[in-house]
Specification:
This protein has 125 residues and is α+β, with helices and mostly antiparallel strands. It has a domain of 87 residues: Nucleic acid-binding proteins (OB fold (Dihydrolipoamide Acetyltransferase, E2P)). Helices cover 22% and strands 36% of the residues. A five-stranded mixed β-barrel has the order 1-2-3-5-4. Strand 5 and strand 6 form a beta hairpin. The chain is globular, with a radius of gyration of 19 Å.
Length: 125
């Protein structure tokens, strides 16, 4: 009886312990060795957990105008890196350096950005 109870407890512990891990995704889709720099207009800004996001309207000759979503670190890391409320707002011009997606689709992971006032916010990636 004790052996089966111990086994059941172990199985339940593994299942419950794995649930939070499966809910978090990795940075594997992004190419941190091939950073790119884009400039555009901020459409939306979400500094929140678990990840910040910036949606940037970008125009280039090849693909025209489109909205690109960039994922970032958590809100707490943004603020510890010097970001403050109002540093970036919708409608602002923004230059962003990001690790692009491996699959070639638009988007990336934010490495740093420069706001309209020339302030640099970097995340040590």
């Amino acid at each position: 009886m004790k052996k089966s109870s111990f086994l059941a407890f172990g199985v339940v512990s593994v299942i419950l312990g794995a649930a939070p891990v499966s809910a978090h995704h990795s940075a594997a889709p992004f190419n941190f060795a091939g950073a790119v720099e884009l400039e555009g207009t901020v459409k939306e800004l979400h500094i929140e957990n678990p990840h910040a996001a910036i949606i940037l309207e970008v125009t280039d000759e090849d693909r025209g105008t489109r909205n690109i979503t960039f994922e970032g670190m958590s809100a707490s890391i943004f603020y510890r890196s010097g970001y403050y409320n109002g540093a970036v707002e919708a409608g602002d011009s923004l230059r962003i350096t990001a690790a692009p997606r491996h699959d070639g689709e638009d988007g990336g992971f934010i490495i740093s950005f420069i706001n309209k006032d020339g302030e640099v916010f970097g995340f040590g990636l």
